[in-house]
Give the backbone structure.
Amino acid sequence: MSHQQFKTEVNDLLQLITHSLYSHSEIFLRELVSNSSDALDKLKYLTLTDEKLKELEFTPQIDIELDEENHKIFTVRDNGIGMNKEDLVSSLGTIARSGTKNFIKNLSEEAKKDSNLIGQFGVGFYSVFMIADKAEVISKKAGEDKAWKWTSDGKTGFDITEAERDTHGTTIILHLNENGKEYDNRWQVEQITKKYSNHIAFPIYLHYEKTEYGKEGEEPTKTPTVEQINSASALWRRSKNDLKPEDYNEFYKTISNDFQEPMHYIHTRAEGQLEYNTLFYFPTKAPMDMFQADYQPGVKLYVKRVFITDDDKELLPTYLRFVKGIIDSEDLPLNVSRELLQKNKVLANIKKASTKKILSEIKKLQNNSEKYTSFIEEYNRPLKEGLYSDFENKESLMELVRFKSTAVEGWTSFKEYKERMGEDQKSIYFITGDNEGFLRNSPLLEVYKSKNIEVLIMADEIDEVVIPMLGKYDDVELKAINKAGSADEIKSDDDKKSEDSIKPLIEKIKEILGESVKDVVASTRLTDSPSCVVADENDPTSQMAQMMKAMGQ
Ligand code: ADP
Ligand code: MG
């Protein structure tokens, strides 16, 4: 069997891992266990839905075998779905997730050294090459006859040959390097497993030799021993009272591929008409694929503790795609097909209730201004998307989004703006554009400054699309100041008089500029600059005009 090269992105990833993740090498075990757990989830699901596999009886489990005497071999075994030859090539020879590929490509040399950044994607199987010179993967796919062995040194490429394996599933045999020797140790493995994998849904058994010392002069006896080392209780089904923040944080790491603690978690049990448990997390840093169309959804669906899918983008509204976690329903049939999920009433209800719950928790976060600022720095933008996509929750979302302003430092809300408004101020004023610094120096702000009127600075490209659509906040109109006529309502009688006095000059300018402009008007909005260009009240503003041009409108 010939030797096959890794795809270039695999080489890049291997480079990255070996250079940056060394101090975190223990995560190899978390990654292997999580792959086994996924494989067991998949097979469990198939035995419920696939005619061919319905007869198959299996007790899902993961086994870890140690070589405490020689510290050479480390084995992880599962009886999950397994891989055939094609699967081995496509899963272990390339990087399937396109987000990861782009992510690596775009990382600067500096960023590559930041292991927190790396924690943002599944480091996955290749992390074994931090601690092994050679890895063998022996696998047999459920429902198939042949087993295959994939072997690699994690440098050049891999070989695949036919192999033997009794049952379906996968065995990973690691030939440890110097750095890996410490993992052939019972206490180490127990501790790492508890840290990362305590709450996965399947038991993890540790196989080792127990040494017992007899009377003096007698040889100690060695007994092969098997011990379950994780609690394997689906954490989200346990009572909140039994759980500590550490339990939640540790569980988060097992489901999110994130090293960092989560920013926040929300654990809910619903009883009554519908019965379900949800556990949601806000990552401390926004997922790196948040703005990619092919982002990986963060929420996994379970039915009565059986994993159904982690690839359904409809479980929560798109704008909440940064939320990670679990929905576990008691009401769906176990063999619900993934295609039918979209139209499912039970799920629609869970989605609706979960959205409300998440938004109300975000509202509560506002009480802690430091925490809320961090939240806004990461998630302001998706919330703004919600302003135009989630009509039902528009009112709550308007309380949650934040803006920069001419009146205060940092972020501010519509509500705070309204509280600061002068008695005879009629509207909430805002200016849109793509650069905060530019906007702050805009001549359009001059008249508002001179009259001490606050203007919201909207420098996020999405603002221009979303904010004008809102119309009002709490009965106060929202007005873009980069529109003709927008300053009319703040004019004094003196302003109006001086405008009249320059009418003849205006006529002259109009004559000269002719067709190249729509209109020329006197304005009191400027105090220091002589003139500026603005959009007509009903026209798109200039930035919007550019965006529409770019979209071919
Ligand atoms: P990820 O788990 O994020 O997809 P990995 O590098 O951890 O990335 O694994 C790559 C792929 O290899 C998995 O998606 C899966 O298809 C396959 N795989 C890895 N380990 C196993 C296993 N124990 N059983 C079955 N398939 C596996
Ligand atoms: Mg994985």
Remarks:
- The CA atoms of residues 138 and 149 lie 4 Å apart.
- The first strand starts at residue 3 and ends at 5.
- The first helix runs from residue 8 to 20.
- DSSP finds 18 helices and 19 strands in the chain.
